[in-house]
């Protein structure tokens, strides 16, 4: 459920986290899920199939994107698009200069133009079955355009637990990797994107 607080903006849930007021009702859970799936799929995976053009940096014209959504969902309002983006706790999307894009998670071939990360170390969670392969061959994207690294051990553990019960957390020597010419792009406060991490920058964090 998405609502809007007059003082603190859009939020998800029954009440504003800051002032505890219920705010103005916008979207129920069902409509939020439908719009969220379409936004994610279009901005990350199939813009052409959805009928929108995406530039080399992942941007889509906001008005064109809204028009496509309006044709698909006759109850759609442009405010709903802003509400989805601004209330997203993971910061998955951004709107800038009448354009919209996903911050990460792409399978389409784009070049995200984020600034370089200044974290000296980054983290990546792996299952026990794959960790030896990663230490030998490095980390490469499989189904996505970029490898997604975490800016903290805790976030890497949280992500890894979605896929495995016994994650092993790898530490990346980001400072050394960047010195050697590997680009590490800061997508959000939690996520850094890269095209590859060779094995010489990987170390297991022992319990």
Automatic annotation (TrEMBL):
Entry function: Removes the 2'-phosphate from RNA via an intermediate in which the phosphate is ADP-ribosylated by NAD followed by a presumed transesterification to release the RNA and generate ADP-ribose 1''-2''-cyclic phosphate (APPR>P). May function as an ADP-ribosylase.
EC number: 2.7.1.-
Name of the protein this chain belongs to: Probable RNA 2'-phosphotransferase
Classification via Pfam families: PTS_2-RNA
Domain of life: Archaea
SUPFAM superfamilies on file: ADP-ribosylation
Record GO terms (molecular function): NAD+ poly-ADP-ribosyltransferase activity; tRNA 2'-phosphotransferase activity
Keyword NAD attached: yes
Family of the protein in this entry: Belongs to the KptA/TPT1 family.
Origin species: Methanosarcina flavescens
HAMAP family: KptA (MF_00299)
Alphabetical UniProt keywords: NAD, Transferase
GO terms for biological process, alphabetical: tRNA splicing, via endonucleolytic cleavage and ligation
